[in-house]
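User: For a teaching handout, I'd like to show students what a predicted protein-ligand complex looks like in C-alpha coordinate form. I'll give you the sequence and the SMILES for magnesium ion. Please answer with just the structure.
Assistant: Understood, here is the input followed by the structure.
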Amino acid sequence: MEEIKTLIIDDEKNILESVKMVLNYENYQVETTNNGMDGIALFKKNRYDIVLLDVKMPGFGGLDVLKNLKELNPFSEIIMISGHSGIEEAVEAAKLGAFDFLEKPLSRDKLLLTVRNAAEKVILLKENYNLKTISEKKYRLIGESQAMEKLRQNIKKVARTNSTVLITGESGTGKELIARNIHNLSLRNKNKFVQVNCAAIPEELIESELFGHEKGSFTGAYEKKIGKFDNAHKGSIFLDEVGDLSTKAQAKVLRVLEEGEIQRVGSAEMKKVDVRVIAATNKDLKKEIKKGTFREDLYFRLNVVPIHSPCLVERRDDIPLLIEHFLVYFSEENNYKRKKISKPAMDLFRQYDWKGNVRELRNIVERLLIMSEGDTIAEYDLPDSMKITKEENAFSFTNIKSWKDFKFQSERLFLEEKLKEYNYNIAKTAREINIPRSNLYKKIEYSGIIIPDNLEADEGSPHSEE
Ligand SMILES: Nc1ncnc2c1ncn2[C@@H]1O[C@H](COP(=O)(O)OP(=O)(O)OP(=O)(O)O)[C@@H](O)[C@H]1O
Ligand SMILES: [Mg+2]
Protein backbone atom coordinates (compact mmCIF):
# COMPACT_ATOMS: atom_id res chain seq x y z
CA MET A 1 0.00 0.00 0.00
CA GLU A 2 1.26 3.46 -0.73
CA GLU A 3 2.26 5.53 2.25
CA ILE A 4 -0.43 7.69 3.78
CA LYS A 5 0.73 11.07 5.03
CA THR A 6 -1.02 12.43 8.09
CA LEU A 7 -0.83 15.64 10.07
CA ILE A 8 -2.09 16.22 13.61
CA ILE A 9 -3.01 19.73 14.68
CA ASP A 10 -3.78 20.07 18.38
CA ASP A 11 -2.67 22.47 21.09
CA GLU A 12 -2.45 19.66 23.68
CA LYS A 13 1.00 18.18 23.67
CA ASN A 14 -0.01 14.81 25.08
CA ILE A 15 -2.64 14.34 22.34
CA LEU A 16 -0.03 15.06 19.68
CA GLU A 17 2.34 12.55 21.20
CA SER A 18 -0.11 9.75 21.86
CA VAL A 19 -1.89 9.97 18.49
CA LYS A 20 1.45 10.11 16.73
CA MET A 21 2.60 7.00 18.52
CA VAL A 22 -0.54 5.04 17.68
CA LEU A 23 -0.44 6.03 13.99
CA ASN A 24 3.30 5.52 13.62
CA TYR A 25 2.86 2.04 14.97
CA GLU A 26 0.42 1.34 12.14
CA ASN A 27 2.95 2.64 9.57
CA TYR A 28 1.29 5.94 8.83
CA GLN A 29 3.64 8.81 8.19
CA VAL A 30 2.91 11.43 10.86
CA GLU A 31 3.76 15.05 11.46
CA THR A 32 2.43 17.30 14.20
CA THR A 33 1.95 20.94 15.07
CA ASN A 34 0.29 22.72 17.97
CA ASN A 35 -1.46 25.56 16.10
CA GLY A 36 -3.66 26.18 13.09
CA MET A 37 -1.47 28.70 11.31
CA ASP A 38 1.51 26.37 11.17
CA GLY A 39 -0.84 23.54 10.27
CA ILE A 40 -2.02 25.39 7.16
CA ALA A 41 1.54 26.31 6.21
CA LEU A 42 2.67 22.69 6.54
CA PHE A 43 -0.36 21.50 4.57
CA LYS A 44 0.45 23.86 1.72
CA LYS A 45 3.90 22.35 1.50
CA ASN A 46 3.13 18.68 2.02
CA ARG A 47 -0.44 17.97 0.94
CA TYR A 48 -1.26 15.45 3.67
CA ASP A 49 -3.78 12.73 2.87
CA ILE A 50 -5.38 12.90 6.30
CA VAL A 51 -5.43 15.65 8.91
CA LEU A 52 -6.53 15.19 12.51
CA LEU A 53 -7.68 18.58 13.65
CA ASP A 54 -8.62 19.88 17.09
CA VAL A 55 -11.75 22.05 17.13
CA LYS A 56 -10.88 24.25 20.09
CA MET A 57 -7.49 25.88 19.88
CA PRO A 58 -6.32 29.33 20.91
CA GLY A 59 -5.90 31.65 17.91
CA PHE A 60 -7.02 30.12 14.64
CA GLY A 61 -9.89 27.76 15.52
CA GLY A 62 -10.35 24.27 14.07
CA LEU A 63 -13.35 25.12 11.89
CA ASP A 64 -11.50 27.98 10.20
CA VAL A 65 -8.52 25.75 9.62
CA LEU A 66 -10.84 23.11 8.16
CA LYS A 67 -12.27 25.62 5.71
CA ASN A 68 -8.77 26.56 4.57
CA LEU A 69 -7.57 23.00 4.17
CA LYS A 70 -10.61 21.98 2.12
CA GLU A 71 -10.02 24.88 -0.22
CA LEU A 72 -6.38 23.99 -0.60
CA ASN A 73 -7.01 20.34 -1.40
CA PRO A 74 -10.48 18.82 -1.55
CA PHE A 75 -8.92 15.34 -1.88
CA SER A 76 -7.55 15.34 1.67
CA GLU A 77 -9.78 14.00 4.45
CA ILE A 78 -10.04 15.92 7.70
CA ILE A 79 -10.98 14.24 10.99
CA MET A 80 -12.07 16.65 13.73
CA ILE A 81 -11.16 16.11 17.37
CA SER A 82 -13.23 17.78 20.05
CA GLY A 83 -13.00 18.11 23.80
CA HIS A 84 -16.67 18.36 24.62
CA SER A 85 -19.53 16.76 22.77
CA GLY A 86 -20.22 19.91 20.74
CA ILE A 87 -23.08 18.81 18.51
CA GLU A 88 -23.29 22.19 16.78
CA GLU A 89 -19.66 22.12 15.89
CA ALA A 90 -19.97 18.59 14.58
CA VAL A 91 -22.80 19.65 12.29
CA GLU A 92 -20.86 22.68 11.12
CA ALA A 93 -17.73 20.59 10.51
CA ALA A 94 -19.72 18.03 8.51
CA LYS A 95 -21.13 20.83 6.39
CA LEU A 96 -17.64 22.07 5.71
CA GLY A 97 -16.68 18.63 4.49
CA ALA A 98 -15.00 17.02 7.51
CA PHE A 99 -14.72 13.25 7.22
CA ASP A 100 -15.63 12.37 10.80
CA PHE A 101 -15.64 13.57 14.40
CA LEU A 102 -13.70 12.05 17.28
CA GLU A 103 -14.34 12.87 20.93
CA LYS A 104 -11.73 13.31 23.62
CA PRO A 105 -10.65 11.26 25.47
CA LEU A 106 -9.70 9.42 22.31
CA SER A 107 -10.21 5.70 22.10
CA ARG A 108 -7.36 3.97 20.33
CA ASP A 109 -9.64 1.61 18.41
CA LYS A 110 -12.03 4.31 17.28
CA LEU A 111 -9.08 6.46 16.23
CA LEU A 112 -7.53 3.71 14.14
CA LEU A 113 -10.82 2.71 12.57
CA THR A 114 -11.62 6.25 11.57
CA VAL A 115 -8.18 6.90 10.14
CA ARG A 116 -8.31 3.61 8.25
CA ASN A 117 -11.68 4.52 6.71
CA ALA A 118 -10.41 7.92 5.73
CA ALA A 119 -7.30 6.33 4.18
CA GLU A 120 -9.46 3.99 2.12
CA LYS A 121 -11.46 6.90 0.84
CA VAL A 122 -8.33 8.87 -0.03
CA ILE A 123 -6.87 5.92 -1.94
CA LEU A 124 -10.10 5.41 -3.84
CA LEU A 125 -10.32 9.07 -4.76
CA LYS A 126 -6.74 9.03 -5.96
CA GLU A 127 -7.36 5.93 -8.06
CA ASN A 128 -10.39 7.49 -9.69
CA TYR A 129 -8.38 10.55 -10.34
CA ASN A 130 -5.65 8.48 -11.98
CA LEU A 131 -8.17 6.66 -14.16
CA LYS A 132 -9.47 9.98 -15.24
CA THR A 133 -5.99 11.15 -16.08
CA ILE A 134 -5.51 8.12 -18.31
CA SER A 135 -8.62 8.99 -20.25
CA GLU A 136 -7.23 12.48 -20.52
CA LYS A 137 -4.03 11.25 -22.14
CA LYS A 138 -5.32 12.75 -25.32
CA TYR A 139 -4.91 16.20 -23.85
CA ARG A 140 -1.52 15.67 -22.32
CA LEU A 141 0.97 18.46 -22.84
CA ILE A 142 4.23 16.89 -23.88
CA GLY A 143 7.55 18.59 -23.22
CA GLU A 144 10.14 18.98 -20.51
CA SER A 145 11.86 22.14 -21.68
CA GLN A 146 12.05 25.06 -19.29
CA ALA A 147 9.39 26.86 -21.26
CA MET A 148 7.02 23.91 -20.89
CA GLU A 149 7.71 23.49 -17.19
CA LYS A 150 6.95 27.13 -16.62
CA LEU A 151 3.77 26.81 -18.67
CA ARG A 152 2.73 23.81 -16.63
CA GLN A 153 3.29 25.68 -13.38
CA ASN A 154 1.22 28.58 -14.63
CA ILE A 155 -1.58 26.25 -15.69
CA LYS A 156 -1.61 24.66 -12.25
CA LYS A 157 -1.68 28.03 -10.53
CA VAL A 158 -4.57 29.48 -12.51
CA ALA A 159 -6.53 26.22 -12.58
CA ARG A 160 -7.32 26.59 -8.89
CA THR A 161 -8.84 30.03 -9.34
CA ASN A 162 -11.93 31.27 -11.12
CA SER A 163 -10.07 34.00 -12.93
CA THR A 164 -10.55 34.65 -16.60
CA VAL A 165 -7.60 33.48 -18.64
CA LEU A 166 -6.38 34.72 -22.01
CA ILE A 167 -4.15 32.28 -23.86
CA THR A 168 -2.04 33.74 -26.65
CA GLY A 169 0.45 32.16 -29.00
CA GLU A 170 1.05 31.17 -32.60
CA SER A 171 -1.19 28.76 -34.41
CA GLY A 172 -0.56 25.11 -33.57
CA THR A 173 1.27 25.69 -30.30
CA GLY A 174 -1.32 23.97 -28.12
CA LYS A 175 -3.66 26.73 -26.94
CA GLU A 176 -6.62 24.40 -26.94
CA LEU A 177 -4.70 21.80 -24.96
CA ILE A 178 -3.81 24.45 -22.42
CA ALA A 179 -7.44 25.47 -22.05
CA ARG A 180 -8.52 21.86 -21.50
CA ASN A 181 -5.75 21.33 -18.98
CA ILE A 182 -6.85 24.38 -17.01
CA HIS A 183 -10.40 23.05 -16.87
CA ASN A 184 -9.38 19.49 -16.03
CA LEU A 185 -7.21 20.64 -13.16
CA SER A 186 -9.85 22.97 -11.76
CA LEU A 187 -12.58 22.31 -9.22
CA ARG A 188 -15.05 22.67 -12.09
CA ASN A 189 -13.77 19.53 -13.78
CA LYS A 190 -16.89 17.54 -12.86
CA ASN A 191 -18.86 19.96 -15.00
CA LYS A 192 -18.68 20.81 -18.65
CA PHE A 193 -15.93 22.27 -20.77
CA VAL A 194 -17.80 23.99 -23.57
CA GLN A 195 -15.81 25.04 -26.59
CA VAL A 196 -16.89 27.80 -28.93
CA ASN A 197 -14.94 28.54 -32.06
CA CYS A 198 -15.77 32.21 -32.44
CA ALA A 199 -14.26 32.34 -35.95
CA ALA A 200 -16.35 29.48 -37.30
CA ILE A 201 -19.78 30.84 -36.40
CA PRO A 202 -21.36 33.36 -38.77
CA GLU A 203 -21.61 36.78 -37.22
CA GLU A 204 -25.41 36.87 -37.23
CA LEU A 205 -25.61 33.61 -35.28
CA ILE A 206 -22.91 34.09 -32.70
CA GLU A 207 -25.14 35.79 -30.15
CA SER A 208 -27.73 33.06 -30.29
CA GLU A 209 -24.97 30.43 -30.09
CA LEU A 210 -23.50 31.99 -27.01
CA PHE A 211 -26.60 33.11 -25.17
CA GLY A 212 -29.45 31.12 -26.73
CA HIS A 213 -32.67 32.47 -28.17
CA GLU A 214 -36.41 32.45 -27.65
CA LYS A 215 -38.65 30.71 -30.13
CA GLY A 216 -39.53 33.08 -32.98
CA SER A 217 -37.03 35.73 -31.94
CA PHE A 218 -35.70 35.92 -35.51
CA THR A 219 -36.37 34.24 -38.84
CA GLY A 220 -35.23 30.69 -38.53
CA ALA A 221 -35.58 30.55 -34.75
CA TYR A 222 -38.18 27.76 -34.80
CA GLU A 223 -37.34 26.43 -31.38
CA LYS A 224 -36.09 27.89 -28.18
CA LYS A 225 -32.34 27.39 -27.98
CA ILE A 226 -30.08 27.04 -24.97
CA GLY A 227 -26.83 28.93 -25.41
CA LYS A 228 -23.27 27.81 -24.76
CA PHE A 229 -22.99 29.93 -21.63
CA ASP A 230 -26.04 28.14 -20.20
CA ASN A 231 -24.51 24.80 -21.13
CA ALA A 232 -21.30 25.68 -19.36
CA HIS A 233 -23.05 26.59 -16.07
CA LYS A 234 -20.73 25.65 -13.18
CA GLY A 235 -18.11 24.60 -15.73
CA SER A 236 -15.84 26.45 -18.15
CA ILE A 237 -16.44 28.03 -21.51
CA PHE A 238 -13.58 28.18 -23.99
CA LEU A 239 -13.86 31.15 -26.35
CA ASP A 240 -11.44 30.03 -29.03
CA GLU A 241 -10.29 32.61 -31.60
CA VAL A 242 -11.84 35.28 -29.42
CA GLY A 243 -10.24 37.94 -31.63
CA ASP A 244 -12.80 37.06 -34.30
CA LEU A 245 -15.89 38.00 -32.28
CA SER A 246 -18.01 40.72 -33.84
CA THR A 247 -18.09 43.98 -31.90
CA LYS A 248 -21.72 43.38 -31.01
CA ALA A 249 -20.96 39.98 -29.55
CA GLN A 250 -17.96 41.47 -27.76
CA ALA A 251 -20.28 43.86 -25.93
CA LYS A 252 -22.43 40.95 -24.77
CA VAL A 253 -19.48 38.89 -23.64
CA LEU A 254 -18.18 41.87 -21.72
CA ARG A 255 -21.51 42.03 -19.91
CA VAL A 256 -21.29 38.39 -18.82
CA LEU A 257 -17.82 38.99 -17.50
CA GLU A 258 -18.89 42.11 -15.64
CA GLU A 259 -22.27 41.08 -14.31
CA GLY A 260 -22.25 37.30 -14.56
CA GLU A 261 -25.55 37.57 -16.43
CA ILE A 262 -26.74 36.48 -19.84
CA GLN A 263 -29.69 37.53 -21.93
CA ARG A 264 -31.25 35.23 -24.51
CA VAL A 265 -31.86 36.72 -27.93
CA GLY A 266 -35.49 37.89 -27.91
CA SER A 267 -35.86 37.81 -24.14
CA ALA A 268 -35.94 40.70 -21.72
CA GLU A 269 -34.94 38.55 -18.79
CA MET A 270 -31.41 38.55 -17.41
CA LYS A 271 -30.16 35.25 -16.11
CA LYS A 272 -27.28 34.59 -13.72
CA VAL A 273 -24.69 32.07 -14.81
CA ASP A 274 -21.64 30.73 -13.03
CA VAL A 275 -19.11 30.16 -15.80
CA ARG A 276 -15.37 30.38 -15.91
CA VAL A 277 -14.15 31.98 -19.12
CA ILE A 278 -11.00 30.81 -20.88
CA ALA A 279 -10.23 32.63 -24.11
CA ALA A 280 -7.59 32.10 -26.76
CA THR A 281 -6.34 33.86 -29.83
CA ASN A 282 -3.39 33.85 -32.20
CA LYS A 283 -4.04 37.46 -33.08
CA ASP A 284 -2.26 40.37 -31.49
CA LEU A 285 -5.24 41.87 -29.67
CA LYS A 286 -3.41 45.11 -28.94
CA LYS A 287 -3.11 45.64 -32.70
CA GLU A 288 -6.79 44.79 -33.12
CA ILE A 289 -7.64 47.40 -30.49
CA LYS A 290 -5.68 50.03 -32.43
CA LYS A 291 -7.50 49.02 -35.60
CA GLY A 292 -10.78 49.39 -33.76
CA THR A 293 -11.87 45.78 -34.25
CA PHE A 294 -11.46 44.69 -30.64
CA ARG A 295 -12.82 46.43 -27.56
CA GLU A 296 -10.17 47.54 -25.15
CA ASP A 297 -12.43 47.08 -22.10
CA LEU A 298 -13.09 43.47 -23.12
CA TYR A 299 -9.37 42.92 -23.60
CA PHE A 300 -8.72 43.99 -20.02
CA ARG A 301 -11.53 41.81 -18.73
CA LEU A 302 -10.17 38.76 -20.56
CA ASN A 303 -6.53 39.35 -19.90
CA VAL A 304 -6.81 38.94 -16.10
CA VAL A 305 -4.35 36.06 -16.22
CA PRO A 306 -2.39 36.00 -19.48
CA ILE A 307 -0.84 32.71 -20.49
CA HIS A 308 1.52 32.52 -23.42
CA SER A 309 1.97 29.36 -25.40
CA PRO A 310 5.58 29.25 -26.62
CA CYS A 311 6.28 28.39 -30.25
CA LEU A 312 8.13 25.20 -31.01
CA VAL A 313 11.46 26.73 -32.05
CA GLU A 314 11.72 28.29 -28.61
CA ARG A 315 11.76 24.81 -27.12
CA ARG A 316 13.52 22.61 -29.62
CA ASP A 317 14.60 20.27 -26.85
CA ASP A 318 11.02 19.03 -26.78
CA ILE A 319 11.10 17.94 -30.42
CA PRO A 320 12.41 14.38 -29.82
CA LEU A 321 9.84 13.86 -27.05
CA LEU A 322 7.02 15.10 -29.24
CA ILE A 323 8.10 12.86 -32.12
CA GLU A 324 8.21 9.85 -29.82
CA HIS A 325 4.82 10.77 -28.37
CA PHE A 326 3.15 11.03 -31.76
CA LEU A 327 4.87 7.89 -33.08
CA VAL A 328 3.41 5.93 -30.17
CA TYR A 329 0.05 7.69 -30.32
CA PHE A 330 -0.58 7.09 -34.02
CA SER A 331 0.71 3.53 -34.04
CA GLU A 332 -1.54 2.63 -31.09
CA GLU A 333 -4.53 4.38 -32.55
CA ASN A 334 -4.27 2.72 -35.96
CA ASN A 335 -2.49 -0.49 -35.07
CA TYR A 336 0.49 0.45 -37.17
CA LYS A 337 3.84 -0.99 -36.56
CA ARG A 338 5.95 1.13 -34.23
CA LYS A 339 8.77 2.91 -36.06
CA LYS A 340 12.00 4.51 -35.04
CA ILE A 341 13.64 7.58 -36.46
CA SER A 342 17.22 7.78 -37.69
CA LYS A 343 19.69 10.23 -36.22
CA PRO A 344 20.11 12.32 -39.42
CA ALA A 345 16.33 12.51 -39.77
CA MET A 346 16.07 13.59 -36.14
CA ASP A 347 18.67 16.30 -36.78
CA LEU A 348 16.56 17.67 -39.61
CA PHE A 349 13.54 17.67 -37.32
CA ARG A 350 15.51 19.63 -34.77
CA GLN A 351 16.70 22.19 -37.31
CA TYR A 352 13.52 22.83 -39.22
CA ASP A 353 11.81 26.15 -38.59
CA TRP A 354 8.34 24.76 -37.64
CA LYS A 355 6.17 27.67 -38.69
CA GLY A 356 3.13 25.46 -38.07
CA ASN A 357 4.46 24.48 -34.64
CA VAL A 358 3.36 21.24 -32.96
CA ARG A 359 0.43 20.78 -35.33
CA GLU A 360 2.80 20.67 -38.32
CA LEU A 361 5.13 18.27 -36.53
CA ARG A 362 2.25 16.02 -35.59
CA ASN A 363 0.97 15.90 -39.19
CA ILE A 364 4.42 15.13 -40.57
CA VAL A 365 4.98 12.31 -38.07
CA GLU A 366 1.60 10.79 -38.87
CA ARG A 367 2.30 10.95 -42.59
CA LEU A 368 5.76 9.45 -42.21
CA LEU A 369 4.41 6.59 -40.15
CA ILE A 370 2.09 5.64 -42.98
CA MET A 371 4.25 6.45 -45.98
CA SER A 372 7.80 5.48 -45.04
CA GLU A 373 9.07 1.99 -45.88
CA GLY A 374 10.91 -0.07 -43.32
CA ASP A 375 11.13 0.17 -39.55
CA THR A 376 13.13 3.36 -39.38
CA ILE A 377 12.18 6.74 -40.67
CA ALA A 378 15.19 8.01 -42.59
CA GLU A 379 16.37 11.35 -43.86
CA TYR A 380 15.20 10.66 -47.40
CA ASP A 381 11.66 9.95 -46.16
CA LEU A 382 11.22 13.52 -45.02
CA PRO A 383 9.38 16.08 -47.13
CA ASP A 384 11.65 18.17 -49.35
CA SER A 385 10.83 21.34 -47.46
CA MET A 386 12.63 19.89 -44.45
CA LYS A 387 15.70 18.89 -46.42
CA ILE A 388 16.81 22.30 -47.66
CA THR A 389 20.35 22.71 -46.42
CA LYS A 390 21.00 25.45 -43.95
CA GLU A 391 23.26 27.44 -46.26
CA GLU A 392 20.68 27.41 -49.01
CA ASN A 393 18.08 28.46 -46.52
CA ALA A 394 20.10 31.28 -45.11
CA PHE A 395 21.27 33.04 -48.18
CA SER A 396 18.85 32.28 -50.85
CA PHE A 397 17.08 35.59 -50.43
CA THR A 398 14.10 34.35 -52.36
CA ASN A 399 13.47 31.90 -49.53
CA ILE A 400 13.54 34.62 -46.95
CA LYS A 401 10.21 36.30 -46.64
CA SER A 402 10.53 38.78 -43.82
CA TRP A 403 12.99 40.84 -41.82
CA LYS A 404 12.46 38.51 -38.87
CA ASP A 405 13.29 35.53 -41.08
CA PHE A 406 16.38 37.22 -42.38
CA LYS A 407 17.66 37.96 -38.89
CA PHE A 408 16.95 34.41 -37.80
CA GLN A 409 18.71 32.82 -40.78
CA SER A 410 21.75 35.05 -40.81
CA GLU A 411 22.23 34.70 -37.06
CA ARG A 412 22.13 30.95 -37.44
CA LEU A 413 24.65 30.94 -40.25
CA PHE A 414 26.99 33.26 -38.35
CA LEU A 415 26.84 31.16 -35.18
CA GLU A 416 27.38 27.96 -37.11
CA GLU A 417 30.46 29.35 -38.80
CA LYS A 418 31.91 30.62 -35.56
CA LEU A 419 31.18 27.42 -33.67
CA LYS A 420 32.89 25.44 -36.40
CA GLU A 421 35.85 27.82 -36.30
CA TYR A 422 36.30 27.23 -32.57
CA ASN A 423 35.70 23.52 -32.82
CA TYR A 424 32.29 23.76 -31.11
CA ASN A 425 33.88 24.93 -27.89
CA ILE A 426 31.00 26.97 -26.55
CA ALA A 427 32.85 28.86 -23.84
CA LYS A 428 35.49 29.93 -26.33
CA THR A 429 33.03 30.85 -29.07
CA ALA A 430 31.01 32.94 -26.63
CA ARG A 431 34.17 34.74 -25.54
CA GLU A 432 35.34 35.36 -29.06
CA ILE A 433 32.08 36.73 -30.38
CA ASN A 434 31.59 38.57 -27.11
CA ILE A 435 28.23 37.36 -25.84
CA PRO A 436 27.41 35.69 -22.50
CA ARG A 437 27.70 31.94 -22.63
CA SER A 438 24.16 31.34 -21.41
CA ASN A 439 22.96 33.55 -24.19
CA LEU A 440 24.84 31.49 -26.74
CA TYR A 441 23.19 28.30 -25.47
CA LYS A 442 19.78 29.88 -25.90
CA LYS A 443 20.61 31.03 -29.39
CA ILE A 444 21.91 27.59 -30.35
CA GLU A 445 18.70 26.01 -29.17
CA TYR A 446 16.51 28.63 -30.79
CA SER A 447 18.23 28.37 -34.16
CA GLY A 448 18.36 24.60 -34.07
CA ILE A 449 22.11 24.28 -34.45
CA ILE A 450 23.29 20.75 -33.95
CA ILE A 451 26.53 20.24 -32.07
CA PRO A 452 28.27 17.19 -33.61
CA ASP A 453 27.93 14.12 -31.41
CA ASN A 454 31.60 13.32 -30.90
CA LEU A 455 32.16 16.80 -29.53
CA GLU A 456 29.29 16.91 -27.12
CA ALA A 457 31.27 15.80 -24.08
CA ASP A 458 34.13 18.23 -24.71
CA GLU A 459 35.02 21.16 -22.55
CA GLY A 460 32.58 23.96 -23.20
CA SER A 461 29.82 21.71 -24.46
CA PRO A 462 26.28 22.13 -23.12
CA HIS A 463 26.98 19.34 -20.63
CA SER A 464 30.08 20.68 -18.98
CA GLU A 465 30.29 23.28 -16.23
CA GLU A 466 31.95 26.66 -16.66
N1 LIG B 1 2.74 20.34 -25.94
C1 LIG B 1 2.01 19.51 -26.70
N2 LIG B 1 2.00 18.18 -26.45
C2 LIG B 1 1.28 17.34 -27.22
N3 LIG B 1 0.53 17.72 -28.25
C3 LIG B 1 0.49 19.03 -28.55
C4 LIG B 1 1.22 20.00 -27.79
N4 LIG B 1 0.97 21.21 -28.31
C5 LIG B 1 0.14 21.02 -29.34
N5 LIG B 1 -0.17 19.72 -29.51
C6 LIG B 1 -1.03 19.13 -30.56
O1 LIG B 1 -0.88 19.95 -31.70
C7 LIG B 1 -2.13 20.19 -32.32
C8 LIG B 1 -2.45 21.67 -32.30
O2 LIG B 1 -2.71 22.10 -30.98
P1 LIG B 1 -3.90 23.12 -30.65
O3 LIG B 1 -5.09 22.83 -31.48
O4 LIG B 1 -4.09 23.15 -29.18
O5 LIG B 1 -3.21 24.47 -31.17
P2 LIG B 1 -3.72 25.97 -31.13
O6 LIG B 1 -2.67 26.77 -30.46
O7 LIG B 1 -5.09 26.00 -30.55
O8 LIG B 1 -3.73 26.37 -32.68
P3 LIG B 1 -4.71 27.40 -33.47
O9 LIG B 1 -4.32 28.79 -33.07
O10 LIG B 1 -4.39 27.12 -34.89
O11 LIG B 1 -6.10 27.06 -33.09
C9 LIG B 1 -3.14 19.36 -31.56
O12 LIG B 1 -3.29 18.14 -32.21
C10 LIG B 1 -2.50 19.16 -30.21
O13 LIG B 1 -2.92 17.95 -29.64
MG1 LIG C 1 -6.89 26.37 -31.42
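For the handout, you might add this sentence: The first strand starts at residue 5 and ends at 9.
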